[in-house]
Amino acid sequence: MSGASSVIASRGNPVSVVLIASSLETIIASKEAKRSPQLKESATAALEMIRNGQGGDRPREIFEPLRLACDTKNEKLMIASLDCIQKLISYSFFAETVNPALQQEMSAVSPPPSPTTAASTTGSAPMSLADLVTHTITAAYSESTPDSVSLQVVKALLSLVLSNTILVHHSSLLKAVRTVYNVFLLSTDPVNQMVAQGGLTQMVNHVFSRAKVGGPADGVGAVDSPITPANGDVVADIHARLAREGVVLPRRKNSATPSSSNPVTPSSEAMAFRTSTIDSIANDPGASGIPFENGDSASAPPTAAETSPTSENAENEAEDVKQPALTIRTTSSTPPGSAGLESNLGTPAPDSAGQPQQRSTSSAEQFLPRQITTNDLFIKDAFLVFRALCKLTMKPLNSESERDLKSHAMRSKLLSLQLVLQILDNHLPIFVDPTSIIYSSSSDERTPFLHASKQYLCLSLSRNAVSPVNQVFEISVEIFWRVLMGMRTKLKKEIEVLLNEIFLPILEMRTATLRQKSVLLAMLYRLSQDPQALVEIYLNYDCDRDATENIYERLMNIISKMVTTKATDAKDAAAKEPVETSAKNQKLQHGPTFPPSPNTAVIGGKNAQDSVASLMPGFTEVKLKRQSLEALVAVLRSLVVWGTGAGGGGLGTGPAGLSATNGTSLRPTSNGTLDFDSRPSSTRIRSSTPDLTDDPGRFETAKQRKTTLLEGIRKFNFKPKRGIKFLIDSGFIKSSEPADVARFLYETDGLSKAMIGEYLGEGEEENIAIMHAFVDILEFRDIPFVDALRMFLQSFRLPGEAQKIDRFMLKFAERYMAGNPTTVFKNADTAYVLAYSTIMLNTDLYNPQVKNRMTKPGFLRNNAGINDGTDLPEELLYSIFDDIANNEIRMKDEVEAAILNAPVPATGLGALALGRDLQKEAYVMQSTGMANKTEALFKTMMRAQKKGASKPSEQFFSASHSVHVRPMFEVAWMSFLAGISGPLQDTDDLEIVEQCLDGFKSAIRIVCVFDLELERNAFVTTLAKFTFLNNLGEMKAKNMEAIKALLDIAVTEGNHLKGSWHEVLTCVSQLERMQLISNGIDVPDTGRTSKMKRLPAEDLANESRSTHITVAADMVFSLSHYLSGTAIVDFVQALSDVSWEEIVSSGGSQHPRTFSLQKLVDISYYNMNRIRLEWSNMWTILGEHFNQVCTHTNPHVAFFALDALRQLAMRFLEKEELAHFKFQKDFLKPFEYAMIHNQNPEVREMILQCLQQMVQLRVHNIRSGWRTMFGVFSAASKSLTGEQLITRYYAGH
């Protein structure tokens, strides 16, 4: 070949002549070139330019023969031309420099059926070369395209989309994504499927990666995206990446494929699914009933003709791009058919005050649009792709065949859900960053990316999170987890709806499967490990009066209930499952689980149906209880971390950082909001409040107000009059004026509709006035009669008494006539009678006790002459009859309650014989109602947000104070106690016991730090009972673990135990008793029965003498000098009480128990160096106790006490006492008390001997003590034997 060896492209990249010439020569030599002069001429001209080293500045002329070759549908030519196009793309041969605004306009233009190098025949703006290339490649694919051509199409499109120089936007980008999506779904070749799936993943990732947020990014060079391999071998790159991940692709047998004369015909299922699903990325703006932003329902699904890959399809794609009205133009003119931004994407971005910015209508601004940057186009591209994927996830799976993992519908749903999850995983900043804005060129209007996309994301979750298909449900839960972690500051109300209406009800539903509940518990376990997320859920929902549910409190109650529910398969599971299962699978159970790849090769494998189940252990009730317990304990751990300031800081403001427990972290973004970071992190940062002050007192007040409101609602639902009075007194109802009471009844959630009806229907003058004010709130203007009646009867439940119904109907008729003066009704009597008649018709048609149903003629006769002596139009009466016959007037609340409370069908042999899963059918029925209700709530919410009706309750509060833990624990402590004590009582599994005891430690830590007396007594007392030290014969290994836990608590929480020291020290005393009994020593205990005196098992006896227990028990006393001045008093008081209990229970024996008395002496030694003020408080208790013990009737007790008191006195008298103090006098008072009150001569003699020793050894230090000593001598001299004692005493001197 003569001529140049390379061609210089417009971007300066040299392109080999051989690369292009070989393809052009193949085209010229083909039979199709001989049949098509246009093809041959263009190919010949292009080849001549290439050989002469020209054409680099005329890429369209080089591209024209390649485009025409693709149109021939010849397999060989298509492969050659597509391969050449793909390589030219990788060398940036088709790169053009286009103004972003012009690029936007060209991207919205539909490519014509036969694109030309100039403007289209309609005279519109010329297509960009990137759009022309995209259209050519996508048009080369159809249902019958051979696999080899399909693979080449994927390679070419992947190179095109990933190119950093040839930028594809909007409709062309959607077409490229759609085509690769179709290849994945329709191809029967597993290699093509895997390559298409990997390519689609890269394309979506690139679209989002190139959209920069957090600062200006208006240059293409700033795009950070995957780079196509230099040799253009995209498939090899995908193979290598998948191989590194452990995915092995089957090898293609032969590269030869059927010729174009014998195309591959897809199955009928593929054709049918393509008609309804595949092209919805670009064709179906509503996507199966998805509401538009203005609340209208979408149009019908596209027909088969509309889904064919023709120019009409391309026009639909362009129209779909125009639909959100994000087209950026350089003039202020609006093309016909394009809607305004405000009607399709919701309200503009909120200003600093939280209110939507109003659109300016000045003519100057219309002609001064914002300058569009390339990054603006990238952000819009990301939104369009995300919206399209969300729409695909919402396609319903109505039949069992569609729920099969191999079906096209299921594979489409799984792939789209996985892509949505991947986007949220890797590109969350584009959603939450305030600089991520979609701009309008015709005005100064802005729409945040999250505001534009959240409706599609939330609706996708509402439909898929109730799916009975496990794989769909699991990935939906993962998507919600990303939303909860990364977007909770932005989607406060949306998260509330999803939790209240879907996820928490599924945990409570009896028809939900164990697997579904296990997946949800795994997600909640991860939530439980995030202290800040837990606290913020409490602040934003439990402390929010407008939130219908206390989500945190309800969640704790649900988890606790799941822990304590008796497992029906507990024995079987315990017999079959080894104890180690939980420890080995703990990480697996709580980590994220993902469905299998939607590739048919993976789905069709040997264990395809169990591919996900293999990731997690068997779903039994026992394991569900274990998961619930772990989640509950994780909550307690998180509350300890947040409440105690672990990692730094103090109780007032919280620590600066928290240790991460789940490998994830929250990082504050530039605007102070939280971002989710999936990378491992060593610290977790408490972010500061974005806009509002985190005032604990404010939240405490708000919580109290909400609790009071709920109490008032409860009173009203039980006794309406009493409830109204309570609510007025509490200030929730402004006054007793009828208008104020009616407004409260109309607007407040949680009130019983039946009780509202009863209260409004009362015949008292006050109730009638409130009823009239209530009806006046309703607006019936220009509403059909039956619709107005339905609205009226939805606001309360109509009472059954005729007089009450009569009063309601009279007021309804008056209100309806006031709002519809042009109605056919001549007066209010007509509306009154017809309303009454309609209610009777509804009862007649739907009451099962009525045998003879009313007919149309009968209804017509009943209403004859009611319009002031004349008849109403028959058409009106017939329409009313048909409306009621087709749709019963029934309260929505009752319908929803009936669905959710439907009985669980039996799953016996009858159900198996029919081949039906009745539980699954019941779940589908219930979940459908939940999804419909959730979707309706989202529609209402979106309409309110569109109108700018933002409430203060929608503002999100971030947590920073640790004191929030106190009210959080107070509202849920009973659930915590039940949840961790139930399993401790029921199981002997030491791993579960360890979990429960860990929960006890955390709970007691919280109650001690925040000084919650009632809760502290409950937890410590419960744990003390689980030691079984009062019933040694029944003691097990778990009880020994409880002893260790209690001793550890005593050592670590001593300063805060207060009155709970009594239970702790009682257990220590009983532990010493157990050790004595185990050594064969007979311990006297008059209060014990024979059962209580049974010996413990030998292994437990040895364990009681273990180093851990012995050291911990000794540390309780030896470390007492570290207790605070207040805590030591509580400790001494408790030890004195336990000591007296020991003496009372064993005082009649020769060897009474004096363990605690000895410990009192020990701690007196340890604490004698305390300041005098603290010691005086201690001795007040100790002295009184020694008074009791020294006068005990058992001389052995008195002797031991006197000797102990002597030792302490000798130690105490070592300290010098200053003049005018009386510390020694008070310390020696027990000797005087014993001398007076104990008549035993031996005891008295010992008292004098003790004093004698003190005088002999400490005479120089005695000061105020002499007064007490002489008092002892005086008391001794008054007794019969006292004179002898005194004589003997002085004789020694």
TrEMBL record:
Its main location: membrane. GO terms for cellular component: COPI-coated vesicle membrane. Residues 698-887 form the SEC7 domain. The keyword Kinase does not apply. Transmembrane segments: none annotated. SUPFAM superfamilies: ARM repeat, Sec7 domain. Residues 354-367, 659-673 have a biased composition (Polar residues). CDD domains: Sec7. Residues 255-268, 297-312, 679-690 have a biased composition (Low complexity). One of its GO terms (biological process) is regulation of ARF protein signal transduction. Pfam families: DCB, Sec7, Sec7-like_HDS, Sec7-like_HUS. Residues 105-124, 249-367, 578-600, 653-698 are annotated as: Disordered. One of its GO terms (molecular function) is guanyl-nucleotide exchange factor activity. Keywords: Cytoplasm, Membrane, Protein transport, Transport. It is found in: Cytoplasmic vesicle, COPI-coated vesicle membrane. The keyword Protein transport applies. This is SEC7 domain-containing protein.
